[in-house]
Design goal:
It is a single chain. By secondary structure, this protein is α/β, with parallel strands linked by helices. It has helices spanning 50-57, 91-99, 115-120, 122-127, 140-149, 166-173, 189-193, 218-228, 253-258; strands at residues 36-40, 66-70, 103-108, 134-137, 154-157, 178-180, 201-204, 206-207, 249-250, 263-266, 269-270, 275-276. The strands form three sheets. It has an eight-stranded parallel β-barrel with strand order 1-2-3-4-5-6-7-10. It has a two-stranded antiparallel sheet with strand order 8-9. Strand 1, helix 1 (50-57) and strand 2 (66-70) form a beta-alpha-beta unit.
């Protein structure tokens, strides 16, 4: 649960206060009371207030179960996963999140990091250095620097790390507070059952193109593009490698919850793309 206050632990309303403008992911019946969700704000227009965005994008999500939102704040060359075009969360949005006991998760998931570059963003790490906030990280060196200098952050191992063995999970947990597993492992019941500390595992509640992508060349290309702000460097494997285009997939959260998992990451459907972000 978010550590900003204890209010999140109390039953409360859903986010819904108006009509939805996008397909709502996962059935509301699967939102068991002990689940915590981190929700994507990718695609949110900068000028749209965050709570209005949540009402439209996640209308059936119980507000008390929203642990955090993940997306871009100020421009930063440490971002990865998606190309930075503009902030998705403004200062006003972040304050509104805090008022609703919702934490901020910042995707510092660039593959390429040096300590001088990291130090140049000390102001940014300091700005959001509050209990209940988290950083998502791919580069282990960056995780160690953040742990040393900004201990209030929860540090999560990004799905980009492709942690897909029990030995890798155990190793990652020596450094990271929580670990995001690849989407495909949601479908491997035996693998999930053999995980020891399930409370430190984050699973995807739904999946997009990464579920069936055979190469994921987008991630290293995004890391390079975010260093230079050059979107022409972005790559996708679709033209080069065939895969099943199955669109958005909602996982059975009831089944995953019965296996002992309670932390979930939820994507939004990208309109017209048959994928999530």
């Amino acid at each position: 649960m978010n550590a900003i206050s204890l209010k999140l632990a109390q039953p409360g309303p859903t986010i819904d206060a108006g009509p939805a403008t996008a397909r709502a992911p996962a059935a509301g019946a699967s939102y068991q009371p002990h689940f915590d969700f981190t929700l994507s704000v990718r695609g949110k227009p900068t000028e749209l207030p965050v709570m209005a965005f949540l009402r439209a994008s996640y209308p059936r999500m119980p507000l008390a179960q929203v642990d955090s939102l993940f997306g871009f704040v100020e421009r930063c060359t440490l971002y990865g996963g998606r190309f930075f075009r503009a902030p998705q969360l403004t200062d006003a949005d972040v304050q509104a999140m805090y008022a609703h006991d919702i934490g901020l998760r910042i995707p510092f998931t660039n593959h390429i990091v040096d300590e001088h570059e990291y130090a140049s963003y000390a102001w940014m790490f300091d700005k959001y250095h509050l209990p209940g906030n988290a950083v998502i990280v791919t580069n282990d060196k960056l995780a160690r620097w953040i742990r040393r200098d900004f201990p209030r952050y929860r540090i999560e191992a990004s799905v980009i790390k492709e942690i897909d063995s029990h030995a890798q999970i155990d190793q990652a947990m020596d450094l990271y507070d929580t670990v995001v597993l690849p989407m495909r492992l949601n479908q491997d019941e035996a693998f999930l059952a053999a995980i020891g500390d399930k409370s430190r595992i984050t699973l995807f509640a739904n999946a997009g193109c990464a579920l069936t992508c055979p190469s994921k060349i987008c991630y290293p290309s995004v890391s390079k593009a975010n260093k230079t702000a050059n979107g022409k460097q972005l790559l996708c494997s679709v033209p080069f490698k065939a895969r099943d285009a199955i669109g958005m997939v909602d996982f059975d959260l009831g089944q995953l919850g019965a296996q002992g998992f309670s932390r979930f990451k939820m994507l939004r459907e990208r309109p017209g793309a048959g994928s999530g972000y």
